[in-house]
Every structure is written in C-alpha cells, then in structure tokens.
Write a structure and sequence with these properties.
The structure is a single chain. By secondary structure, this protein is an all-alpha fold. It has a domain of 41 residues. It is elongated and about 45 Å long. The mean pLDDT is 79.
C-alpha cells in the first residue's frame, strides 16, 4: 500500500529499510488474510472465486 511519506519515486526505491518495510507489510497482509476463516471457504457462486481486499475492511 501507498505510504503517506512515499512520493512518486517509490517504484525504484530499493534501500534495505524500505524493502524490509514492504516485506513486513506484505507479511502482515498475508497473516491478516489467513486469519479470516470465512475468506478461506470455497465460494458458493458460479464464478468459482471470490476476492477480498483487506485494506477495505477495518482491522
């Protein structure tokens, strides 16, 4: 996700602290997603899949 302090240059900022922050953010997102048991259930629609945006749901 876009950080408040990041500018338009974030696509090529690969400093160690920046990368660790991005990795931690991704790991936090994965953990939050996997902690939602309803999200892991098989969908009951004809499409065969469901998407969830963890950033639209309050934590």
């Amino acid at each position: 996700r876009h950080k408040e302090y990041e500018g338009h240059y974030k696509d090529f900022q690969f400093g160690l602290s920046t990368m660790r922050e991005h990795w931690q953010s991704g790991l936090d997102d994965i953990r939050h997603s996997l902690s939602q048991p309803d999200w892991l259930a098989m969908p009951d629609n004809d499409a065969g899949f469901v998407t969830h945006d963890i950033h639209r749901h309050s934590r």
